[in-house]
Amino acid sequence: MSDLLTTVLDAHGGRARWEEAHRITARQFFGGALWGMKGHPGALDGVEVTVDLRREHVSQKPFLDAGHHTSFSPGRVAVEDSDGKVVEELLDPRASFAGHGLMTPWSRLQLAYFSGSAMWTYLAEPLSLTFPGVRTEEIGPWTEDGEKFRRLRVVFPEGIATLSTEQILYVDSSGLIRRRDYSVEIAGDTPAAHYVSGHQEVSGLVVPTTRMIYSRDENGHKVPEPLVVSVRLEDVAVS
């Protein structure tokens, strides 16, 4: 494990405390241009999200219809009713995005896959960076708006579903993750600059509550318009 990853874990509450926790639940608020571009304006805004910290699993409810919720894992995404009965499901969901670009519309289940993989990546971090097969290394620093950041390159194994196999995390002087760069593989490798803020301590874990995601230019700088995705969390709880 790299020295920088140890710094990140310590700043976010410590590895031991993260390993004691089982799940994080919050109310999520989504904004930005992406949802309308994908045919689901207002989708998943103001719903409850639950992220498992021991395995890659996410549930969001309600999902488009009252009484329905999602069940996301890397190899399967489903919509279920309040009794756990499957309404619809998609196996090997990643394969369904073959040939997709930024403007390609999503089905309901593709929406559930995208949001599930994204929210697990965001809320299970930094514990997820210690999972088997995840590789990390510190690379050269970056200065933005007068602030210098250390950077951590992360490569995820095939068994973890995330928006990009390779991602770059920007870490501030206190050890907090403040930005991540990646290319959205299921949307034509669209480059993104993802800004992280609003860190709050919840039951010993430090959890970011605000995310602003923009396109990224060839020099690594954000393209300020449009705001592609925003994520805001309220009522964060750890169990």
Concise overview:
The chain has 239 residues and is mostly beta strands.
Structural summary, described in words:
- The protein has 239 residues and is mainly beta.
- Helices cover 15% and strands 42% of the residues.
- Strands 1, 2, 3, 7, 8, 9, 10, 11, 14, 15 and 16 form an 11-stranded antiparallel β-sheet that branches.
- A hairpin with a 2-residue loop joins strand 12 and strand 13.
- It is globular and about 45 Å long.
- The protein starts with a helix and ends with a strand.
Tell me the distance between the termini.
26 Å
* Mean pLDDT, all residues: 97
Oligomer: single chain
Q: What is the makeup of the main sheet?
A: 11 strands, antiparallel
**Overall outline:** globular
Task: Tell me the number of helical segments per DSSP (H or I, 4 or more residues long).
Answer: 4
Kindly state the number of beta strands. Answer: 16
Helix/strand-derived category reads mainly beta
Fraction in beta strands: 35-45%
Radius of gyration (Å): 17 Å
Order of helices and strands: HHEHEEEEEHEEEEEEEEEE
Summarize the amount of helix as a percent range: 10-25%
- Note poorly predicted spans: none
Key features of this structure:
239 residues, three-stranded antiparallel sheet, mainly beta, 42% strand, 15% helix, single chain, eleven-stranded antiparallel sheet
